[in-house]
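[job 4417] fold queue: 2 targets
>>> target A
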Amino acid sequence: ALIDQENYILDIIHDMITNNQTSIDDVINHTTVMLQKNPAFGNAWLVRSWALYQKKDIKQALYAAQNAATYYPNSALIQHNLGSVLMTVRLGDESIIHLKKAVKLDPENETINVSLGMAYTMNRQYNEAISVFEYILKLNSLNYKVYYYLGDLYSYQGKRNDAITAYTKSLEINPEFEAAKNKLQVMLTQN
């Protein structure tokens, strides 16, 4: 019943944000009130973390994300949020731990898998990142950004032909993707 009440309140806040009826500061204020009434309101910590992250208050966003994970450790969304904030503060190993938990809880979620692949990339664990991105392409072979990320990874590994193939595939799916055009052009002009 408490979870249902939390979700109802958060749906109202989400609708307010979506319809431009409230600001990020209002969201922070709403969550402050909620958390004063019930500090174990895990989803309020999640929303607060998101709002603080939008305000670039990363330290407080991390604190809120950690609290959310304390109350709801088995939420893929909360683990993903915490892992993403940790990635922002360059705590790659810790970020990967939480993102792997999120993937375990929601294995077919492309967004969570992309975050895990990016965390591996940031941590220079290129083979692991490639495995994650290849898995995503099994879920959705039309994800042009994932082909782009693979192109970067192959480039980092000195696999020029694989990088060219990945950038080309990205552009086959989205011919207007400027980043892939630029990277492909650089790859093709190199010896």
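>>> target B
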Amino acid sequence: TRSATPVRDDRSLWETKGLQPLPGAAERAAVLRAEELTKTYAAVSGARGGAMGRGELELFRGLNLAVYAGEMVAIVGARNASALSRKFAGLLAHDLSEAGLAIVSGMARGIDTAAHEAALERGTVAVVAGGVDVIYPPENEALYRAIAERGTILSEMRLGESPLARHFPRRNRLISGLARGVVVVEAAERS
């Protein structure tokens, strides 16, 4: 299995990989205090009327407040989705975002990836099961960076924490709490 890739602001590490750090990521992280995050979390939770619960967001990266201005719809589904389902998820996400709805999903392979990619132009929210500085799955590194630039990445997990199976129900609770509705495009019967 592939492991999660932590994101570091160490410039020498970035340069050896031929990458650039996310613009202002270290500065944003330094100025975001726990009380500000909690207020933002409470504001988003209250505005959505969702079931986000009482936990605190550990950190967010690339906060694009415009994404929160309107209603959100979650588009989720199978990681090993069929090509037809991925195409449908992308079309649905694109059309809903064009209609002014923000798309929220879990940045997993399959349906989540298709939904985020299709909604990226107007802004999308990725709720991740690990720390916001951990790119998972690793093949979504470019998508992670694009969402950090144009959307928002949220997590309740601590920085550097790799996603574990027990974290996914917490992630899913946040996704459903942010969204006005949840569209499940394709899923196994017991998922």
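[job 4417] complete. Note on B: Residues 57 and 156 are 4 Å apart (CA to CA).
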